[in-house]
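Fold this complex.
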Amino acid sequence: DSYEPPALVAVGEFSEDTLGH
Amino acid sequence: MMSLNLHQDVSMAETDDGAVLLHQRTGRYWQLNPTGVFVLNALLDGRTDEQAADELAARHQLDSDAARRDVSKVVAQLRAAHLLIEAR
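Structure:
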């Protein structure tokens, strides 16, 4: 015989605190 | 088989590591790896899950059944996150 299986990973969430917008 | 679209509130930005998907209404965002982007783009171009899996298998010399399992899994993840919807 490079393969990495398809994957979706939750990263986080923008909040009003993050954005200020 | 109905075709799939990104949810209207979802934006995708491709990166060196795949893509970031942002749900602009909820503020949640996700990382999709490069093979995930390959599958998602195939689906958004109108290919079926099976066709996307066959293309993935050909690209990476995978067993067809294994590719279909991998595609089914990531499609389920995308649906569960409400990132993909059936095209009307």
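The mean pLDDT of chain B is 90.
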